[in-house]
Amino acid sequence: YVMGSSHTETGRDEDEILHVRTLEQSFALAWQEVSVEEYERFYQTLPVQDFPSRRSELRKYTVSGGPVINCTWQDAAQFCNWSSSLDDLPASEWCYEDEKGELVLKPNAFKLKGYRLPTEAEWEFACRAGAVTSRYYGDSVALLPHYAHFRSNSDVIAATSCGKLRPNDLGLFDMLGNVMEWCEDLHHDHARFRGGSFDDVPQYVRAANRSRAPSSTRIYWLGFRLCRSWVTH
Question: What is the pTM of this model?
Answer without folding.
Answer: 0.95
